[in-house]
Each structure stands twice: as structure tokens, then as C-alpha cells.
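Hello again, I could really use a second opinion on something today. I've been staring at a protein lately and its backbone has me curious. Can you walk me through what the C-alpha cells say about the fold? Take your time with it, there's no hurry, and the full record follows here:
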Amino acid sequence: MKPTLNTLSDAYIVLDDLGLSGFLDGWEMEINVNELARALLRERKLQLFISIVSGKSEDDCGDLTIDEAIKEILSFFETMRAQLLSLQGFAPGSLKITKENRKTKK
């Protein structure tokens, strides 16, 4: 997986439609892949987003399990993180990717 400028632009558009473009804005991000997948699924954009970041067709992405879908999203952000960390001057740790569920206490 290679996040190109086209991939990033297309992914940004989908996330921005959902109010989630902050995942790709700036240098400091915290991404919970499970929360992102749920938000995309709720808006019927999960197949589109995975298609964009994986290069697979939307139909093929529709056949993925939720676990496989999360792995595709995680792979995209991990690849993007590795590329950002390879840049001179990029501070390690300013991009955090999580897969756990976070529950808020009431």
C-alpha cells in the first residue's frame, strides 16, 4: 500500500464529508481505527474509503469482514505514519494509531 497524493486527497474528501478530516489534517493525529470504521459504516462510506486506501474495487471491499476492513484501514494509516516518520524533522510519536475500543465513563 502506497498512500499517494491522489489517495490522500480522495480519503480526505470522504473523511471531511463525515466531519472526520482531522484524521488527515496537520502533523498531530490520534486515530482509533475501530471508531473510524464505525463512523464510516454508519454513513455507508466504509466500502468507498477502503476502496480508496487499498486500491480494491468497492464491490470487493463489500465482501470484507469488519476485521478485514479494519486491517485495511490500519495498514493505510501505518504506511502513512512510516512515510511521515521518514521525513527529516518529523517528531516521532506525533501520529498515534490505536485499534482498541475506548469507553467513556458516565
